[in-house]
Amino acid sequence: MMRTRNPAVAMFVFVLLAMSAPSGAAVWTVEKDGSGDFTVIQDAVDAAADGDTLMIGPGRFDDYRRYTLGAWVDRLFHVLLNGRSLTMIGSGEGETVIGPESEFPITEHAIGVTLVYGSELRMSELTIEHCYGGLNCWDTSYLEIDRCTFQHQTWGVGCGVFSSRGARITDCTFLNVDTGIFPGSGSVDVVVDRCMFRGMIYGMNTTSTQGLIVTDCRIEDSLMGIQLWSSSTATLTDVDIETDRMSMIVKAGSHVDLTNSRLSGGDLATVWVDGLSSLTGSGNILRGNDCPPLRIYRSDVALSDSHILSFSGYAVECEPNFPADWTLDLRNNWWGVSDADSVASLIYDGNDSPDIDILVDYLPYRDGQVSNESMGWGELKRLFR
Predict the structure, then answer these.
(1) In a 10 Å sphere around its CB, with 0-12 CB exposed, 13-18 middle and 19+ buried, how is residue 164 labelled?
(2) Is residue 285 part of a domain?
(3) Is residue 266 in a domain?
């Protein structure tokens, strides 16, 4: 996907920046042809003061430098913000590109953009590709990115957030990366809105993140959708996921609230909830292909006003060794069938095996599809996509 910047929009952004920038803030230009203030982005970063803006022209910016920072010894970076607060605006996705031309360059691998030691970056309208990780936000740094593309990274993550100050990622595209967005250990309040993920191993993968918010995003043609583990918490709204293996994994004490979303699974499960985790929500469509829409192991699930639909086999499969006498709340859902016995036949729980100390409460059940009013605005929008 390539979105180039409209000149009128560029002028509007420039004027807006001039009006909102702190007194004394400067605007620097970076142009490959030498017509700007700099030809290398890092030179502009080093010269700029906090609050300044870098307007980056078209072209491929593959320069990199070697730095030693704490435990990082002789690491290579295309762009490094070390305790700086800046805005970077490119000429459009696919027009301004950070990274080498080849996915596997003969030269050493460098990280795309990195923020450390309380840096702040607002970045838009550019592409990061073929890097050893696209963008990383560390420690107490803060990140806002808008209308950027992360693609074909040589290793790892399109955008990694490991900061207690959070991040906001909006209208971005992630293509052919191991993991699109990784809110890592210690990250808080990461917001992901209106983003597209395609060709991933994981669209998003988390560990020990708190307050992740994902809205109006799509993950497709990928192995896994979203994985939350190690006591992560997240709210997902109006999310579409279609994957080869599993759409969502909630594990190791994590919690997810899922609303007005559509998930379609692959060959393992649509949603797998494991390891004393929990899943709540309403207004969803969970569709299994050759797998159960819900696979539950030692965890709690409460879903209502949703579609839980199995193509073949069970719609809910509970696994043994759960703490004794646990009941899952799956009342008021549509199962694709119209009588209680048929619904019961789609559920594998303690009624089917003495080894499973868990029961599914499915009564009352919906005797027809959930209405658009109950499904919410997000599900209604999908009818017109």
Answers:
(1) middle
(2) no
(3) no
Dmax (CA) of the chain: 76
CA dihedral 215, 221, 222, 225 (to 10 degrees): 30
Host domain of residue 15 = 1-177
Which one, of 144, 155, 145, 150, lies nearest residue 174 by Cα?
150
Residue 194's Cβ-count burial label (10 Å; 0-12, 13-18, 19+) is middle
* E strand or H helix that includes residue 329: strand 326-329
Mean pLDDT, the chain, whole residue set: 90
Q: Which residue has the tokens 């918490």?
A: 233
Distance CA 228, CA 206 (A): 5
Q: What is the pLDDT of residues 56-65, one digit of tens each?
A: 999 999 999 9
Does 119 fall in a domain?
Answer: yes
pTM above 0.85, yes or no: yes
Q: Which residue has the tokens 């990250």?
A: 187
CB 360 within 8 A of CB 353: no
* H-helix segments, the chain: 7-20, 41-47, 340-345, 372-375, 377-382
* pLDDT tens sequence across 159-202: 999 999 999 999 999 999 999 999 999 999 999 999 999 999 99
Query: What is the C-alpha to C-alpha distance for residues 119 and 134, in angstroms, rounded to an integer?
Result: 17
Measured torsion, CA atoms of residues 273, 230, 282, 337, in degrees rounded to the nearest 10: -10
Amino acid at 360: V
Number of structural domains in the chain: 1
pLDDT digits (tens, 9 = 90+) for 316-334: 999 876 556 789 999 999 9
Question: What Cα–Cα distance (Å) separates residue 222 from each residue in 243, 247, 325?
Answer: 5, 9, 37
Whether residue 116 lies inside any domain: the answer is: yes
Structure letter (DSSP) for residue 44: H
Cα–Cα distance for residue pair 306/291, rounded to 1 Å: 18
- Torsion angle (degrees, nearest 10) of CA 270, 274, 278, 280: 10
Q: Counting beta carbons within 10 angstroms of the beta carbon of residue 56, is it exposed (0 to 12), middle (13 to 18) or buried (19 or more)?
A: buried
